[in-house]
Amino acid sequence: MNDDNQSYLNILTKEFLDNHPLLKSLIRWYQQMDVIENNNKNNKTHNFLQLFIDNLTNNLTRSPNNYRYDESMKNFALCLYILGGKQTYEFICLNLYGSILNLTTLGDLIKTSNMALNEAEFRFEYLPQLHSSFGFCSEDTTGVIRKVEYDCSTNSFVRFATPVTDGVPLSQYFQVDTFNDIKEIYDMSEQARLLNVHMFQGIQSDDNTTSIPRPFLLSAYGINNNFTALDVLQRWLYIYRNCLKNGVRVIDFSTGLESAWYVVFVCRIWWSWLKKEASSSSSKRTTACEQQNHINKYFITKPAYLSVEPNAHNMLYMVLLVKQHSLPKQALINIHLFNSQGCESLFRDARSLSGSFSTIVNFTVNNFIKRSQKLAILNQFKYDQSEHNFLFQSIININTMID
After folding, report:
1. What's the structural domain count of the chain?
2. Which residues sit opposite 164 in a β-bridge?
3. 227 or 99: which leads in pLDDT
4. Range of the domain at 271
């Protein structure tokens, strides 16, 4: 080792450094990094740029078949592929060879992750990893491309309307072993035109509103809306019991079709219309108090309106449970999370993964399942970014959204 150091010293002459200004800049930069780390010994942080340069320079001295990547570089490559897409990733691979993994290795990492999801499969076993004892469950649907696809990992077809038993969808129902099975499935089964998803929104046990857990995808499957109210209640009961078995209590359920929200939206539109009409028809001499009286004349009473909003959020029910110490106060603090917006956000994020040059915005059921796996990996990195060496763009503060 001493001989190697001596040989390096013989090479690193002043003339050699002058001929390679990049090397001189790197040495100066590493010296600055050493000073920063020595001044922050108690709060030592790993700079991702330093890890990136170390990994790249080490690989440049090896053959392409012997490239090595540490865990941070693997995680960075996954995030880059999910956020930038395949073409962006291939462009960086070609021009910065040795910096990130090849696509084959990256695909294996995605497949072996614990975020895999199969159609109509509920992932209750992952709930303890969310570190939330309480939470909300939401359910919503969206239109999908009607296309039947074969899933080789489960030996089953995806895209048919999933049958239900006691409200619970049957996972891997369309498995095939022979050509007769395929013919029977196509002859007897109906293609699903909608995708139904179930989300779980955890609640923090402290008052830290800056680290609200991301909604977790419990299940996804194709449907045709051919189910009854009893099926929905039985399915919710099934979710509630299985969540309880895994140490999580579901406070309430939310869907995008609740009648209480129809009343809320009608009242909000009514109020906005009256306010707009009052401001457009009023003269400059009209005071704000007179405008308000004009609005109140044609709107429901204030107590009635104030009872409509809490009813949609089940707020009175929550207040009673918190007062009885059956729920933590965080359930009321995070009452704004009790809606199906987590499902809508997931649909938007999944559609945004279509790629820059793709003209197809929507997805099939199988596409959504694969994209949701990538989104789950990305969200896990975002939530645990303090444990990694790279940062994500800051998200809008939740308090601003509420205001």
Report:
1. 2
2. 169
3. 99
4. 261-299
